[in-house]
């Protein structure tokens, strides 16, 4: 196991540093939350709720895996552990669930939670194929009294929020291009290939974050119903030959032409050899603005290989603080009846683009969108 993967699996948590934790009035009600799915993301969310979200209370965790049971015993032994999600849905005074199970279970669990009258923080994507996300979007929109928030964590990242506010204040001038590079650290253990089988491929699983970020920073909803004109994608396999039989690749290149006249270019990679890298550059008519990956330590080391800062090992290190902010925001949104910043509709729009990019990669042809905002995809693909 590489150090990076070991770090992810062992759940090395970041400190709060300068994350503003939301604190309610003394004695105020706290949001009673359960976590469904206790793998990499579920553990992170459970830890953050328990230790770092003052306005929420972690009341239960459900996951059938013996490893999850062991993790709860070792790390959060005072929290009720269940093997099934049905046992959690039967808890009478529950307010919300965080769904961090494998992607194929997201839609049925979200529909069950909405039916049960619970707020939901749902990990991305809703499903691995956007068409099957539609019932979830409809159910969420039919219940405005419930908050259904999607875990597009980048929208809660301090540096990217600063960039968003900078653009909104018109300091960069009219934005026209967003370039994003997202490199997951290379995993030689085989874990990643196993994970990739159930999670929708590089465009849906990895690219959906970049796509959502481009929609957000380029304000693409301003164009109305048809947000996208056309997408083009290509890709290659550098290190994981097993991906070929899954119609997937480990490095992908995307161009998204939005209907408001802006474009996004993405490089998505599973083969980062220098730790996790997420670099974002926004070009406006007055400025180029860049958010690069900060080093994971302020100590700069000098040795015979040169002078260097350590890089973040995984996305959990780069976006660790953003996950804490996301959970604090979710508690505040539910308790204070605030608007959800990352809706099921946003997830559906991003998934349409991810699906169109997947089809473009597989066929070698661009995919256009129609006036109703739907990708024009040959059903035979
Ligand atoms: N926001 C992000 O940056 C981010 C990063 C990684 C993963 N994710 C998303 O989080 C989800 C989980 O990913 P992960 O990396 O934690 O995967 P994982 O394989 O580490 O964990 C998934 C867990 O879900 C459990 N599970 C499966 N079916 C279940 C069910 N019916 N009820 C309860 N538990 C069940 C499994 O036993 C496992 O422990 C995926 O949808 C993924 O796309 C989001």
TrEMBL record:
GO biological process: NADPH regeneration
InterPro entries, A to Z: Gfo/Idh/MocA-like_OxRdtase_N, GFO_IDH_MocA-like_dom, NAD(P)-bd_dom_sf
Gene3D superfamilies: Dihydrodipicolinate Reductase, domain 2, NAD(P)-binding Rossmann-like Domain
Top-level taxon of the source organism: Eukaryota
Signal peptide as annotated in the record: none
Alphabetized SUPFAM superfamilies for the sequence: Glyceraldehyde-3-phosphate dehydrogenase-like, C-terminal domain, NAD(P)-binding Rossmann-fold domains
Residue ranges of every copy of the GFO/IDH/MocA-like oxidoreductase domain listed in the record: 164-286
Assigned keywords, A-Z: Oxidoreductase
Cellular component terms per the entry's GO annotation: cytoplasm
Keyword presence, Endoplasmic reticulum: no
Domain Gfo/Idh/MocA-like oxidoreductase N-terminal: 31-151
One term of GO molecular function: nucleotide binding
Pfam families: GFO_IDH_MocA (PF01408), GFO_IDH_MocA_C3 (PF22725)
Keyword Hydrolase applies: no
PANTHER family tied to this protein: BINDING ROSSMANN FOLD OXIDOREDUCTASE, PUTATIVE (AFU_ORTHOLOGUE AFUA_2G10240)-RELATED (PTHR42840:SF3), NAD(P)-BINDING ROSSMANN-FOLD SUPERFAMILY PROTEIN-RELATED (PTHR42840)
Family, similarity comment: Belongs to the Gfo/Idh/MocA family.
Protein's name according to its UniProt entry: Myo-inositol 2-dehydrogenase
Organism, as annotated: Apiotrichum porosum
Lineage start: Eukaryota, Fungi, Dikarya, Basidiomycota, Agaricomycotina
């Amino acid at each position: 196991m590489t150090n990076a993967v070991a770090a992810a699996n062992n759940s090395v948590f970041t400190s709060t540093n300068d994350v503003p934790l939301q604190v309610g009035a003394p004695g105020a009600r706290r949001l009673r939350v359960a976590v469904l799915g206790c793998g990499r993301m579920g553990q992170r969310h459970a830890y953050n709720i328990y230790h770092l979200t003052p306005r929420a209370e972690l009341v239960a965790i459900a996951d059938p895996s013996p490893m999850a049971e062991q993790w709860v015993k070792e790390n959060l032994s005072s929290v009720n552990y269940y093997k099934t999600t049905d046992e959690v849905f039967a808890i009478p005074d529950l307010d919300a669930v965080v769904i961090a199970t494998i992607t194929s279970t997201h839609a049925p669990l979200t529909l069950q939670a909405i039916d049960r009258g619970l707020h939901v923080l749902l990990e991305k994507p809703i499903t691995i194929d956007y068409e099957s996300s539609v019932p979830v979007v409809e159910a969420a929109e039919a219940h405005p009294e419930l908050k259904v928030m999607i875990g597009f964590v980048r929208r809660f990242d301090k540096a990217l929020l600063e960039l968003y506010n900078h653009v909104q204040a018109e300091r960069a001038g009219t934005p026209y291009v967003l370039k994003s590079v997202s490199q997951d650290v290379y995993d030689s253990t085989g874990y990643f290939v196993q994970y990739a089988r159930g999670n929708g491929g590089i465009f849906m699983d990895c690219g959906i974050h970049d796509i959502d970020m481009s929609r957000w920073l380029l304000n693409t909803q301003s164009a109305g119903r048809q947000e996208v004109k056309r997408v083009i994608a290509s890709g290659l396999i550098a290190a994981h030959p097993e991906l070929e039989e899954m119609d997937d690749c480990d490095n992908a290149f995307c161009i998204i032409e939005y209907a408001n006249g802006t474009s996004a270019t993405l490089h998505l990679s599973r083969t980062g050899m220098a730790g996790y890298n997420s670099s974002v550059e926004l070009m406006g008519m007055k400025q180029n603005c860049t958010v690069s990956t900060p080093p994971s330590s302020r100590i700069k080391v000098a040795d015979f290989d040169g002078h260097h800062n350590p890089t973040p090992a995984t996305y959990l290190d780069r976006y660790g603080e953003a996950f804490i902010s996301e959970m604090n925001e979710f508690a505040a949104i539910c308790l204070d009846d605030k608007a959800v910043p990352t809706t099921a509709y946003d997830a559906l729009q991003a998934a349409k683009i991810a699906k169109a990019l997947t089809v473009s990669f597989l066929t070698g042809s661009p995919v256009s969108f129609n006036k109703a905002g739907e990708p024009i995809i040959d059903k035979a693909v």
